[in-house]
Amino acid sequence: MKKNVGTHLIALMAGMLFVFGVCGVGIAADPIKIGVAGPHSGDLASYGIPTTKAAELVVADVNAKGGILGRKIELLIEDDVCKPEIATNTATKLLSAKVDVVVGHICSGATKAALGIYKDSKIICISPSATNPGLTQSGDYPNFYRTIASDDAQAQLDVDFALNTLKLKKIAVIHDKGDYGKGFAEFVKKFLEESGKAEVVLYEGITPGAMDYSAIVQKVKRSKAEAVIYGGYHPEASKIVTQMRKKKMKTVFISDDGVKDDTFIKVAGEFAEGVYASGPKDTSANPLSIAAEKAHKEKYKSDPGAFYINAYSAMLAVVNAIEKAGSTDYEALSKALKTEWVETPIGKIRFDDRGDAIGAGFSVYQVQKGKYVELK
């Protein structure tokens, strides 16, 4: 009898150890799920794909070292084509997959459309490129962070450059009517008018995706503007610049980081020469930036594209916050992002109370001999 009791106890204990052992392994093995949302197809894919590659490289490195908190990272990649109506579906998909954090979205309009969905579920979203000021300044999205400066800072830089460096007096301001392009243009117009140094001779929106922009080009010509400051993305900018130059117009063209992309140069060709565009500061001398660029070239056999370094930095900020917070809890991550500094390819950063990265900034670039060159 005693022998049977002992046997049963041993069997029971073994069973309990098996159950707890399996459960324990299951809990430890549950991955940390990071969503990567942005345009991975369509005209603006050149903005989204570099973020995906940055995420893949950071995750490969972290997982090779054992992951975070004993857990590996799993990437959930979703395409929003930079369209608000698709971005809401993208956000819903990521929530259904029980994502912990989202890196993205890329375009401001798509980001804004998705943010409310993430906020309701207390999911932090860190964008490498969404620059619309209202995303952080309105206070509507406490779950939003970014590793790039906002459009008001970018607009001020472009206006200062136009007025103080180029000494321009008559400026046309046009935009693509989107959250990003129009928001940037509104700040440009405001800063130009407040300066008292130049006249805004034309302020108008265009229709994105049109094949022909001769009407707006003709308006710019009639306005006798010395320069155009454009708010929007490269597909429309390349067409406008091309049509301007084919009409022999020497009007200076200045734009934003939506145009500071090699795809603009490829599409506009010879007509891109001399165009100015603001974009994230060149951090190519930063050792982490050098390493990130090298990793991309070794893995993908090509140079990284737009916002790659900002995306790499966003991923490192996420990893650091999870490590310092000791979990993926929303409140703990929020605190870590705002209080813990992290070394990244764009420099040593943390986020202010609004979600803007302290340490990020813009520079003005010019297309010279087929390449964007930072102007000092």
Write up this protein:
The protein is an alpha/beta fold and 376 residues long. It has 13 helices and 15 strands. The chain starts with a helix and ends with a strand. Mean pLDDT is 92; it is low at 1-27.
Can you count the beta strands? 15
Overall body shape: elongated
Q: Output the strand order for the largest sheet.
A: 7-6-8-9-10-14-15
Provide the CATH superfamily of the largest domain.
Response regulator
Count of individual helical segments: 13
Number of domains: 2
Helix- and strand-based class? alpha/beta
Q: Report the portion of residues in β strands.
A: 15-25%
How far apart the termini lie comes to 90 Å
Q: Return the CATH architecture of the largest domain.
A: 3-Layer(aba) Sandwich
What percentage of residues falls in helices of 4 or more residues? Answer: 40-55%
Please give the CATH class of the largest domain.
Alpha Beta
Would you tell me which CATH topology of the largest domain applies? Answer: Rossmann fold
Order of helices and strands: HEHEHEHEHEHEHEHEHEHEHHHEEEEE
As a whole number of angstroms, the C-alpha radius of gyration is: 24 Å
Mean pLDDT equals 92
Spans of 5+ residues with little confidence (pLDDT < 50)?
1-27
Query: Quick one: biggest sheet?
Result: 7 strands, mixed
